[in-house]
């Protein structure tokens, strides 16, 4: 019914690191087909080799890449991997185009949007300057940029992330390519914008009858848009097939694990399944559900009243511009429960967390903890409360001091707050905590760079636990992690809450995760609280317009689409 | 934009005040009594007494500072302590020869450096690239003095292609007879460090994402370099040139000393030797102010070079 | 918490490479870097040996004839030496007899007898020296060694002080911000609005005239340090600003670490590699600057030798065909500066590896 547009066979790619060490094998023999007029999703976590495989097709690998001679990428009867540079340059941008993950840096900052789109038109379609400009305006309109005649003269930095990505798409489809490679194009965008871009790509695919190779780590997105799916792990294809088969009858344990360990909107298992459950165990984890919610009789541990935070930026000759980041935010955190704080970038959710910790100075408001207003305490008084409220940051690669051993990182807070009778006892406690978060004791002597992202987040959690806090703020703490690792960390957080009665404020932009872990959910937009309700309630019966818009942007994935 | 310029000029005021203060502290306070300074250099006691009176040495410091400030803004630093020539006249007459040498040097050196840097960046990672880098490093480690001595000896003395030293009254004679050897020398020595620096600018740009996009569009590598990369690399290059602009006036004082060119650089060296403070003070303060003006002009020019810059 | 306390006392301390160790390993693999390191170490050893008087102690002794030839040019003609010898001989020749008008004439005989009693060692001046001699017959090789001691010492000391000042100011400005930042930025602007060479010459002028910057090489070290702190300041301030906003510092604040702890225990180890590279680069720059200053006469005092003073002498020697002092000073300086520059590059690559 559809013939094959591109065939990848036995792709094997190594990277030369330096003279002494052996080359790192990123792709270990990968084969898949891309039929014409089809969307193929290339799915995998970080390190799976999916981006490398796609880049190889267009010959865009870095200079230290070695492609094995038996690898092939057959297109139109030719092996692209063996084609000359001139041949490839004729194909790039014309027959096969690509869009990247970070649109801001992928566009040249010193040329206008119109010039950059026009460039590819003039190169491959032989258009003149004026003709190219006209066509560029048309393309901008086609990808949904308002006022294209004006915007054609804009510079990339004058546009939002979503608009920049649309410009990249316009550039990519300008010459009506047969294949569009999209390398995680929505990962860096907000949820609502993500949905728009996905819809745009899908409609363009249908309209121009081109194929799309969509690279992503998000199975939810795959379920929405893909026709065929290729699942990669560690440089190998673990499973591939039509999307229906993959979602309904996954064969390989890794595929099953990937599908299962993402928190879903319709169920809430007591523990999220993790990869190991499938790869090593029998694959049917305990799916007993957990009930969540708050009641009026819950004791309140933290109360925030009228919190405001305004940033002042210099402007004009002598003036200052006020940028309100948090506006009149009030909420209560029940003891032993999780309050989810949801919003897109710029909503102020992270600022709320930082202000509670007094890492930012609030402009006004009260933060009542056990009856005392934390914002009015002196630094010395605050020290006593510091250990009771702790925070885990988003970027696991930045929150640990690279020059300090894990042991030092864990023992430092204990020293500051005089926990433990002597150094010996503190070291003991550090060892125990490492075990509790599932890391080997030897980690004590190691440096952060030897650990993966998920492991570093656990260390960060362990650091917080050294002080036996009451409240833990998780600021996008799992957002930077792979799905499977995310599940592990969420399970750990839940275990700790069950064991120690911790209260969490869980900040995230990922609605599915928030629903899974929270008892109550607060939605923020432009610094204000839009809606606040128990988590089941807010997802089933969202009352505000913005909440509904947010919820509708969640990629439904295959399962939900079928069930709904 | 006018608001921006005004705000910048407003911000310059404390810096100019600071420079005046620094020079004052250095020369009037630390430098102290001209009688001591000039002892042994000027034998005429009347002359020394005059200088002391002019400076107001017996007066409290704030009075001396006021005298100095007046001098700065009336362009009248009095007379040189050694030659008795008016300082303002000294500066004005010496600038010409310095510029005759330095402007060609700046233009030729920058053009050659950019050209070579692009070429080397194009063949990055190859043996040629590394060989050229090492040659540059070695070339940079030989002292400028050695180059001058050898070049002067070789091209002037042995081969006789250029006069060993000298200067004339005619501009054109200067430009084509006396200037070429110093210019050649300065360019020869100056290209190596610029080449290294500009090469690093180009390499930084080549590793950016937008270059990958340009290649993904199917652009030939030459166009990627000459259009996309060059245009972006020009931004730090121009910044770099702008930083050197004020230095052009001090010129290469070594060249002026060796080749007997009556420029501002040689004048300063002579002044240092003779402890001729008024000359040094004047040149320093005016060059500092000139630097600030150049910085402002460069920042304004930025707007046309880098569209990301906006004036707030 | 679990009730069972495991005793970790016997847990073996595993070899875990810190970031410095990793950098060292990277450096070891860099052949160019290692060779440069060896050369620099050799020069440093030479400097210490010269400082402690082990070698080149008698560099000022006029051992050779004027413009003695280097050993490898032993047979060449040496017109100057011959002229000096002729002058000496003429000086020893008996003077014209003026006894009838000279009032001191009767005493000459007596004085002659007395003079003969005093032992005078007639030092036979050497015809050739290992690397030749200068105008006064001083050994060029020894001068080069002694000169390297001065140049390296000035470079090292100056760079250490400059980087120290720059780091402290940069840390304060970058971390605290606010008024302290404004004040330090004001100082920075003042110093950088004056062209660097001019600034040095201005300081040199005052130093020379009044001696207020200390005596001898202390003065030139101070001049270089007080004008050279701006580069390290700029970089360290940028580093501190960058790191102060990093999450690990916010995490330290969250657990209650003090400001002092954050500045020095947390951030400093993460930025010290930048300071190290700055140090290396400034040693190179200051050695070159010292040579030029000494050449002009603003550097080391007259009783000391530096590569700069050697080049000053060499200026006039080349026309009469005596090239060895120029070659010796120029070459040894070139070798050291090249080695140090390459070492700086290798250090930078080892400490902050980027994908090439």
Distance between the termini of chain A: 30 Å
Low-confidence segments of chain A, given as residue ranges, are: 560-564
Helix content of chain A: 25-40%
Shape descriptor of chain B: globular
Strand fraction of chain A: 15-25%
The main sheet of chain A comes to:
6 strands, mixed
CATH topology of the domain at 300-562 in chain A: Rossmann fold
What is the β-strand count of chain A?
A: 21
- What is Rg of chain A? 26 Å
CATH superfamily of the domain at 300-562 in chain A: P-loop containing nucleotide triphosphate hydrolases
SSE order of chain B: HHHHHHHHHHHHHHH
Percent helix range of chain B? over 70%
Largest interface, Cβ cutoff 8 Å = B-C, 53 and 51 residues
Alpha-beta classification of chain B:
mainly alpha
**With helices defined by DSSP (H or I, 4 residues minimum), what is the helix count of chain A?**
22
Provide the CATH top-level class of the domain at 300-562 in chain A.
Alpha Beta
Terminal-residue CA separation of chain B: 8 Å
Name of the CATH architecture of the domain at 300-562 in chain A: 3-Layer(aba) Sandwich
Task: Quickly give the structural class of chain A.
Answer: alpha/beta
Low-confidence stretches of chain B: none
Summarize the structure.
Chain B is mostly helical and 312 residues long.
């Amino acid at each position: 019914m559809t013939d094959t547009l591109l065939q990848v066979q036995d792709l094997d790619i190594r990277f030369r690191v330096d003279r002494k060490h052996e080359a790192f094998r990123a792709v270990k023999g990968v084969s898949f087909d891309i039929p014409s007029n089809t969307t193929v999703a290339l799915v995998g976590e970080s390190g799976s080799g999916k981006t490398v495989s796609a880049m190889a097709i267009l010959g865009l690998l870095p200079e230290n890449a070695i492609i094995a001679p038996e690898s092939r990428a057959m297109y139109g009867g030719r092996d692209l991997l063996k084609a000359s540079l001139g041949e490839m340059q004729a194909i790039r941008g014309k027959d096969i185009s690509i869009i990247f993950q970070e649109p801001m840096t992928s566009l040249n900052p010193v040329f206008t949007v119109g010039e950059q789109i026009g460039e590819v038109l003039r190169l491959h379609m032989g258009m003149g300057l004026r003709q190219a400009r006209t066509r560029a305006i048309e393309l901008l309109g086609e990808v949904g940029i308002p006022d294209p005649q004006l915007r054609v003269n804009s510079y990339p930095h004058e546009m939002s992330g979503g608009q920049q990505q649309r410009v990249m798409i316009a550039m990519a489809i300008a010459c009506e390519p047969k294949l569009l490679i999209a390398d995680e194009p929505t990962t860096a965008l907000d949820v609502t914008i993500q949905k728009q871009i996905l819809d745009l790509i899908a409609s363009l695919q249908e309209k121009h009858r081109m194929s799309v190779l969509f690279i992503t780590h998000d199975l939810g997105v795959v379920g929405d848009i893909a026709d065929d799916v290729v699942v990669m792990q560690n440089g190998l294809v673990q499973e591939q097939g039509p999307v229906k088969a993959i979602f309904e009858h996954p064969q390989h344990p890794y595929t099953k694990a990937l599908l299962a360990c993402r928190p879903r909107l319709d169920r809430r298992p007591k523990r999220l399944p993790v990869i190991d459950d499938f790869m090593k165990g029998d694959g049917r984890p305990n799916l007993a559900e957990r009930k969540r919610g708050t009641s009026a009789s819950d004791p309140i541990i933290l109360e925030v009243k009228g919190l405001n935070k305004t940033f002042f930026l210099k402007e004009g000759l002598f003036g200052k511009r006020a940028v309100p980041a948090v506006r009149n935010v009030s909420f209560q955190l029940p003891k032993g429960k999780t309050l989810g704080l949801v919003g897109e970038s710029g909503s102020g959710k992270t600022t709320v967390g930082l202000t509670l910790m007094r890492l930012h100075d609030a402009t006004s408001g009260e933060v009542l903890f056990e009856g005392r207003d934390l914002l009015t305490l002196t630094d010395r008084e605050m020290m006593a409360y510091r250990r009771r409220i702790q925070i885990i940051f988003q970027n696991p690669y930045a929150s640990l001091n690279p020059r300090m051993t894990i042991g030092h990182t864990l023992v430092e807070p204990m020293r500051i707050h005089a926990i433990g009778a002597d150094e010996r006892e503190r070291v003991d406690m550090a060892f125990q905590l490492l075990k509790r978060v599932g890391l080997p004791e030897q980690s004590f002597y190691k440096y952060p760079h030897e650990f993966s992202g998920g492991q570093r987040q656990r260390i960060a959690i362990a650091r917080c636990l050294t002080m036996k806090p009451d409240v833990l703020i998780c600021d996008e703490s799992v957002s930077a992690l792979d799905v499977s690792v995310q599940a592990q960390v969420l399970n750990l957080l839940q275990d700790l809450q069950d064991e120690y009665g911790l209260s969490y404020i869980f900040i995230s932009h990922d609605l599915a995760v928030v629903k899974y872990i929270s008892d109550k959910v607060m939605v923020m937009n432009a610094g204000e609280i839009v809606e606040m309700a128990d988590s089941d309630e807010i997802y089933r019966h969202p009352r505000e317009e913005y909440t509904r818009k947010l919820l509708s942007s969640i990629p439904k994935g295959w399962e939900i689409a079928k069930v709904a | 934009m006018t608001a921006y310029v005004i705000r910048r000029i407003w911000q310059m005021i404390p810096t100019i005040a600071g420079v005046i203060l620094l020079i004052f502290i250095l020369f009037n306070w630390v430098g102290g009594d001209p009688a001591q300074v000039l002892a042994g250099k000027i034998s005429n006691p009347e002359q020394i007494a005059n200088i002391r009176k002019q400076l107001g040495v017996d007066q409290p410091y704030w009075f001396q500072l006021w005298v100095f400030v007046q001098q700065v803004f009336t362009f009248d630093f009095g007379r040189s302590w050694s030659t008795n020539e008016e300082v303002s006249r000294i500066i004005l007459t010496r600038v010409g020869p310095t510029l005759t040498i330095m402007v060609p040097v700046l233009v030729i050196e920058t053009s050659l450096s950019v050209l070579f840097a692009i070429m080397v960046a194009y063949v990055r990672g190859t043996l040629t690239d590394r060989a050229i880098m090492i040659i540059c490093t070695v070339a940079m480690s030989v002292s400028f003095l050695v180059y001058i001595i050898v070049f002067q000896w070789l091209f002037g003395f042995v081969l006789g292609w250029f006069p060993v030293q000298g200067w004339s009254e005619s501009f054109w004679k200067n430009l084509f007879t006396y200037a070429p050897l110093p210019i050649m020398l300065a360019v020869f020595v100056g290209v190596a460090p610029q080449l290294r620096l500009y090469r690093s600018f180009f390499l930084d740009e080549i590793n950016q994402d937008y270059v990958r996009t340009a290649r993904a569009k199917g652009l030939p590598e030459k166009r990627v370099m000459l259009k996309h990369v060059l245009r972006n690399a020009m931004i730090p290059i121009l910044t770099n040139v702008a930083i050197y602009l004020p230095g052009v006036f001090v010129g290469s004082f070594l060249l002026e000393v060796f080749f007997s060119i009556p420029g501002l650089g040689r004048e300063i060296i002579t002044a240092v030797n003779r402890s001729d403070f008024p000359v040094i003070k004047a040149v320093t303060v005016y060059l500092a102010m000139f630097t600030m003006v150049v910085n402002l002009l460069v920042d304004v020019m930025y707007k046309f070079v880098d569209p990301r810059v906006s004036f707030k | 918490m679990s009730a069972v306390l495991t005793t970790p006392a016997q847990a073996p301390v595993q070899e875990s490479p810190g970031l410095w160790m990793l950098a060292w390993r990277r450096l070891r693999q860099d052949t160019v870097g290692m060779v440069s390191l060896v050369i620099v170490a050799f020069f440093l050893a030479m400097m210490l040996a010269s400082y402690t008087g082990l070698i080149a102690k008698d560099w000022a002794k006029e051992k050779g004839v004027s413009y003695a030839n280097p050993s490898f040019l032993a047979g060449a003609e040496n017109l100057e030496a011959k002229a000096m010898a002729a002058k000496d001989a003429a000086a020893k020749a008996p003077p014209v007899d003026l006894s009838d008008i000279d009032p001191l004439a009767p005493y000459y005989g007596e004085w002659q007898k007395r003079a003969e009693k005093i032992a005078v060692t007639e030092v036979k001046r050497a015809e050739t020296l290992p690397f030749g001699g200068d105008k006064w017959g001083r050994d060029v090789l020894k001068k080069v060694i002694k000169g390297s001691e001065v140049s390296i010492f000035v470079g090292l000391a100056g760079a250490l002080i400059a980087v120290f000042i720059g780091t402290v100011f940069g840390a304060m400005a970058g971390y605290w911000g606010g008024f302290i930042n404004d004040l330090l930025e004001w100082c920075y602007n003042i110093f950088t609005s004056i062209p660097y060479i001019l600034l040095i010459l201005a300081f040199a002028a005052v130093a020379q005239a009044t001696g207020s910057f200390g005596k001898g090489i202390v003065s030139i070290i101070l001049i270089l340090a007080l004008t050279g702190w701006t580069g390290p300041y700029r970089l360290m301030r940028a580093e501190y600003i960058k790191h102060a906003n990093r999450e690990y510092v916010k995490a330290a604040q969250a657990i209650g670490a003090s400001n002092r702890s954050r500045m020095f225990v947390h951030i400093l180890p993460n930025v010290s590699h930048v300071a190290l590279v700055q140090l290396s680069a400034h040693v190179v720059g200051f050695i070159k600057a010292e040579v030029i200053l000494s050449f002009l006469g603003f550097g080391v005092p007259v009783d000391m030798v530096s590569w700069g003073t050697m080049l000053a002498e060499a200026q006039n020697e080349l026309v009469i065909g005596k090239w060895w002092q120029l070659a010796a000073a120029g070459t040894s300086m070139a070798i050291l500066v090249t080695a140090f520059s390459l070492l700086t590059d290798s250090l930078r690559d080892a400490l902050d590896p980027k994908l090439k």
